[in-house]
Automatic annotation (TrEMBL):
Residues 369-417 form the Nucleolar protein 10-like second domain. This is Nucleolar protein 10. Residues 528-557, 631-688 are annotated as: Disordered. Residues 1-364 form the Nucleolar protein 10-like N-terminal domain. Residues 648-663 have a biased composition (Basic and acidic residues). The keyword Coiled coil applies. It comes from Formicarius rufipectus. Residues 664-688 have a biased composition (Basic residues). The keyword Coiled coil applies.
Amino acid sequence: MQVSSLNEVKIYSLSAGRSLPEWLSDRKKRALQKKDVDIRRRIELIQDFEMPTISTKIKVSRDGQYIMAVGTYKPRVRCFDTYQLSQKFERCLDSEVVTFEILSDDYSKIVFLQCGRFVEFHSQHGHYYRTRIPKFGRDFSYHYPSCDLYFVGASSEVYRLNLEQGRFLNSLQTEASESNVCDINPVHFLFAMGTAEGKVECWDPRTRNRVGLLDCALSSVTADTEIDGLPSISALQFDGALNMAVGTSTGQVLLYDLRSSNPLIVKDHHYGLPIKSIQFHRQLDLIISADSRIIKMWNKDTGKIFTSMEPEHGINDVCLYPNSGMLMTANEAPKMNIYYIPVLGPAPKWCSFLDSLTEELEENPESTVYDDYKFVTRKDLENLGLAHLIGSTLLRAYMHGFFMDIRLYHKAKMMANPFAYEEYRREKIRQKIEETRAQRVQLKKLPKVNKELALKLIEEEGEEQQITRKRKQKNLPSLLKDDRFKVMFENPDFQVDEQSEEFRLLNPLVSKISEKRKRKLKILEELEAQGQEEEEEPEGKASDAESSESSDDEKDWVEEVRKQRKLLRQEEKLKRQERFKEDQQTLLKPQFFEIKEGEEFRSFKDSAKKQKLMKKTLEDRLKLEEKLGTLNVSDTTVGSKQATFKLKKSEQQRKQQEAEKQHRQERKTLRRPAGHLKSKRGRGRLFH
């Protein structure tokens, strides 16, 4: 159960908290209640007081025993018995219900107006009869003396269905194109209907003639209200014989005395949403009006807010339980909310335990834990001189700081800063002086970064304002006030360098204008330093001078470009001369290089050749390798290419190969005479 308080009016939400699914067993429900504190503390006033998806309308029978609600999906009606605190029955319907009415004291006679132009009658046992009306209906009311049902909807006619004779009677012809709501006064049975044009037509059922017309759309528009279109009537409710409350589609509630065409009071919800429901609370002279976002309770004589409620989900309907402080709502959610407000009245008889429960809560209010503690950071502790308490029981570590007793905090603050009152007094005096200064003519404060650019934007903005005033156009937003360009006037990294080559070539005429702005900047800085006020703006040029300047813009531009180029060339020459002098002054020192092991130093040309070779592309290097013979590229039978490489040999390998080659040649020369002799001997034997 959640407790909220607004204007010292406590509101108890009895349906707050999570609901348990129906398919859970009793054993699992008991186990969850033991584990979860929120489930254990929740109050389930009526068992399964919810709809599958959303609930659209909710009403209480005249005897107060039954609460009936309709919703989706699928379209259905559920009846809850308050004496048993549970659901009595559920009936599914063929189409969604627009609205319904309980004709009897209990649930035995119910009429449903459905979306498909159907009117369905239910009795105690279930479905009884079904008929259709010519046009789509939006609301209906029951006239008890004649047993007539009055239907209003997307038509200029009001259809009458007599339940005693069981037939349609002659309809009432109105001036409205469509009607949204209707109601019948419970005292003198005056029939009133709210139209789409923002008017209320009042009819006498006895003579079937119109007896009054109220233009609520015109009366709802006041000096404080802002509306986009023509307000239509979205809610209508009678209170007694003379009072009537009307709700509009733009969020206004008008209270009328039937003897006057002007409203007694106009209350605006300030949300621009259509009013869904209006209820009267006679004991406290309150009006309970609700749109899809908020429920407001306000005094019908003064219009002063009594209290308000904002549920989590959108509101479709509000029902006040008679002679009690209980309020029920149909929402855009499965669960239907139940609120108990003890100030409005006692709890109903079937839940009288709520009074004792709320009294106990008021007698023993739960003070929040953090009311007696102050959150401080390490820096705050150092300023108070309490850094030595870190790690003791007087400080409780929490996130990036500590919690400490509020009494200890106040004592330490008084000791650390005994002149706090004097500082407070000085601050107040300074604020008053600033308030008086604000009434005077203030200087234009320029940012620290890009002052000339800011001054240029201010001048351009002033010129644009003059043009827009003449043409009656809307002013465009300023770059200085735009958060997207805020950093450009705060961060010095975004400072415009006017001495750069790009800036000087792209903006050749900026030099003249910048000189004027620099003069203005000097004047403003002097005035700021002296504390004087700028009463008169600097005089501008005559119109003739401006026209002459605009005609000679092209010549000036060409001349300025030439001058800038000459200056840039001169600056480049000076820079080259300075570099040449610096090079002459610097002494060249010899540089030593270390050669890797196993390599011989030949010359610097080899390293230069290697660097040039590395800079070449892969294609050029492959061609060079082919010329040298270290690479061989050939086509295969499949169509692809085959490349074979010969690795380059180092100096050591080359020397070793040369030594091996020389050794082989020496061995060959030594072996030749022995072989020659053997061959000769063989020959002699053969021919001997």
